[in-house]
Amino acid sequence: MIAVLRDGLCPNTLDCPEIRGPLDDGRVIVRGDKPDAAVLAELNLPDHESAVIVPPSLVRGAGVRDVLTLEQLGEFVAQHHTRDLFRLETLSFYNAVSDADDLSRYLRGEPTPSAEAKRPWLDRIRADVASGRAWRRIHAVTQPLSDYIRYECEWGYVPNSAAGEQVCIAELTPALAHVGDFFVLDESHVVRSRYDETGRFVDAEVIGDSASAAPFLAIAELLWNQATDFSTWWEAHPRYHRDTPVA
Questions:
Q1: How confident is the model at residue 3 (pLDDT cuts 50, 70, 90)?
Q2: Distance from C-alpha of 229 to C-alpha of 224, rounded to nearest angstrom
Q3: Cross-strand pairs, 134
């Protein structure tokens, strides 16, 4: 009987497939879902081979990385943010459902964002900062600012900064635009966020190996030392302020 090396018993068996072995030649058997007929046809495997579907974590050492949905990204951030969260933003527009109502209000010229909608987010920042978990953000921008960035500055970064988030502004260079958006959690966990051409979130990629993560860590440190504090930058650019201040 082939021994069970890992039993695959977890809340989601796709995250920990059963592994048996070793065989006489030292290899192991992985139990997983069978691909559908279209995938098997595309693989065009020889008769003596078969294929199963396994989670990326099982083969991370082979260069396969974890890809997260927006919900999974939130869970990953919450799990790995114990001391410091750094985020680089590079887009001039984010097509986020959470922004829709307040963005419309801002563009209509209404005086303030929805306090009820913003309160949970600001409370989270305050609670994290009070417990020693720093929030740091850099938005790399080009001028003149888009209406969306003006909205982010006035109705996002102003109250976020007051709640304890450290926000900075940098110039968006072609090199930074190529790097794109990413998070660094606790100076070690790197996650790249991907968006489509409309600014809608597509997925996020966990950069698990240290060699691939190192350039992102270096970029984050360099940018943080060079960027301008948001309050200073915002005060120096009054042309982007609305006539009616945000309360």
A1: confident
A2: 9
A3: 84
- d(CA 48, CA 153) in angstroms, rounded, equals 60
Q: Which pair of structure tokens corresponds to residue 122? A: 């600001």
Instruction: Kindly report whether the global pTM for this prediction surpasses the value 0.70.
Output: yes
Identify the CATH homologous superfamily for domain 67-240: Endonuclease Chain A (3.30.870.10)
Enumerate the domain spans of the chain: 4-54, 67-240
The SS3 call for residue 149 is helix
Q: How many Cβ atoms from other residues are within 10 Å of residue 140's Cβ?
A: 20
- Residue 41, H or E segment: helix 37-43
Instruction: Indicate the Cα dihedral angle 113, 116, 120, 126, nearest 10°.
Output: 60
Q: Find where tokens 């504090």 sit.
A: 229
Asked if pLDDT for residue 246 goes beyond 50, the answer is no
CA distance 14 to 34: 12
**Which residue type occupies 173?**
T
